[in-house]
């Protein structure tokens, strides 16, 4: 091997030696089941398909019928500012705007949204205050913003007392004109939920503050019409940037931001991932719009998902395991890597696909099974899974 390749091969060896080397698995999806590396079908408790939309064969067929009536290209050929703006984009934005009662701007993904919006709206007179546990895409957005001279500060996870002090500090600082609070509504590793009412009240303490909330795990899963935690808490109007992704509960692809018309216009003019990347295919927009129409009416499914989440959290607490979750993302925090991997393996033997999450994704000593519930599973399957968990982690392995 050449010296150049050796450099990377050595880095890979180092990853392997600390059990942090990642690779793709050969996966076959069969409805709510998944086959890994040609193994037996396992109940999939690791996907973000919270309402079973992505695996719903009937919805898929129904959408194909729609496509027979409307021509929806499989490619957009350019950015929306050039020739890539199709009717389907305008229609989906109008549909979102009408549901939220505020303007909407679409992006290629949630990742694009987070790495694009923050650097676009922040400058050397801006401070970003971000929760310690925000998603990697928000962290990358902050890094890019820092290149514009933006100051970035992380506060302890959900520590609003500390956040309040930070707001007061930067409110009093004359060199700071804008303070952006960046958080998630449902956190992706702990499954806990931010009190958005409290955040909105913190925001109101200073005219400088803008709220930026990532609802990637909440859109579709929360709120009477599935618009997310902002709908659930009744604060859609009070959040400056409601950001989300269609790839999870919506079973599609893409990102969005709900914001003021001025900010929307500003993003169209300044946000690099929007300007310099080919827009998603019109067929993707049409599918998202189709799902959105369905999801608004899936209130019963959302209630059932919430009840299932509660059932699992209660079962974990009964097993004397700590459980921070208040959502469909339910971590089983076991501590050591070895114990966690062993538990994931034992569950696999019993027919359940659950992923083990280890540092650096989560803090050291907090390795965990990360269970992502889906409404697609039956009550019996849920009960069977809880019994399996009891066998695997209940007795303390
Ligand atoms: C998944 C996720 C994203 C990224 O969204 P994509 O559409 O998958 O790029 C952003 N933020 C959070 C909190 C996420 O969980």
Protein model, in words:
By secondary structure, this protein is of the alpha/beta class. The protein has two domains: 18-47 and 298-395, Aspartate Aminotransferase, domain 1 (Alpha-Beta Complex), CATH 3.90.1150.10; 62-296, 3-Layer(aba) Sandwich (Aspartate Aminotransferase, domain 2). Helices cover 42% and strands 17% of the residues. It is built from 14 helices and 14 strands. It has helices at residues 3-17, 57-69, 87-100, 110-121, 136-146, 160-172, 196-203, 229-232, 261-270, 272-275, 282-295, 299-318, 337-349, 379-394; strands at 27-30, 33-36, 42-44, 104-107, 126-131, 151-155, 178-184, 209-214, 241-245, 255-258, 329-335, 352-353, 355-357, 367-372. The strands form three sheets. Strands 4-10-9-8-7-5-6 form a seven-stranded mixed beta sheet, sandwiched between helices. The chain has a four-stranded mixed beta sheet with strand order 1-2-3-12. A three-stranded antiparallel beta sheet has the order 11-14-13, with helices on one face. A hairpin with a 2-residue loop joins strand 1 and strand 2. Helix 3 runs parallel beside helix 11 (282-295), helix 4 packs parallel to helix 5 and helix 12 (299-318) runs parallel beside helix 14. The longest helix is centred in the last third of the chain and has 20 residues, at 299-318. The mean pLDDT is 96.
Brief overview:
Its EC number is 2.3.1.47. The protein is an alpha/beta fold and 397 residues long. The protein contains 14 helices and 14 strands.
Keywords:
397 residues, alpha/beta, Aspartate Aminotransferase, domain 1, Aspartate Aminotransferase, domain 2, seven-stranded mixed sheet, four-stranded mixed sheet, 14 helices, 42% helix, 17% strand, binds pyridoxal-5'-phosphate
